[in-house]
Design a protein that fits this description.
This is DUF1572 domain-containing protein. The chain is mainly alpha-helical and 170 residues long. Helices cover 62% and strands 5% of the residues.
């Protein structure tokens, strides 16, 4: 039973990561190289900064902490960047980071998922780390989508291929 529960948890976490990746990629198709680094205002981040931040956070939590490798994150640099990577390079960096995190999650043992460790000053189990990564990625995916919608004044069509009016089945 424990093995089934762990497998189900991992499968659903990876699905949610893939969903956020799908939505970010779809949103980025609609903006240009200037818009990727444009900030909504002085206290907000550009899409480029958010992608760098996601890569840093996912690496620190899922890849380094859960994967038990050194934490080399420079969080301040994620927000200080004003350019440097193209839209394509940012998306590729995010995709590589998410793929590495997914591989780390897939191979995590029950001991790794239940052991507590300190990450960024917080105390989380491996399950807590995975939940944080999924939630944090989803949160910033929403910010990216909202900003692109404002920039382009259009729906991004995340669910164009789905009928969201289907009722639940038991």
């Amino acid at each position: 039973m424990e093995e089934l529960l762990v497998s189900e948890f991992k499968e659903n976490a990876i699905y949610r990561l893939d969903e956020s990746s799908r939505m970010v990629a779809k949103a980025l198709r609609d903006i240009d190289e200037i818009q990727i680094w444009k900030k909504p205002n002085g206290v907000s981040n550009s899409t480029g900064n958010l992608i760098l931040h996601l890569c840093g956070n996912i690496t620190q939590y899922a890849i380094a902490s859960l994967g038990e490798i050194p934490d080399l994150r420079d969080r301040d640099a994620e927000f200080a960047a004003k350019n440097g990577l193209t839209k394509t390079e940012l998306l590729e960096k995010l995709e590589r980071t998410v793929e590495s995190a997914k591989a780390t999650i897939k191979k995590a043992s029950v001991e790794q998922l239940t052991r507590k460790r300190e990450v960024q000053g917080f105390n989380f189990s491996g399950i807590g780390i995975v939940m944080h990564v999924v939630e944090h990625y989803s949160y910033h995916t929403g910010q990216i989508a909202f900003w692109v919608k404002l920039l382009k004044d259009k729906d991004l069509g995340f669910y164009d291929d789905f009928d969201l009016n289907i009722k639940n089945k038991e």
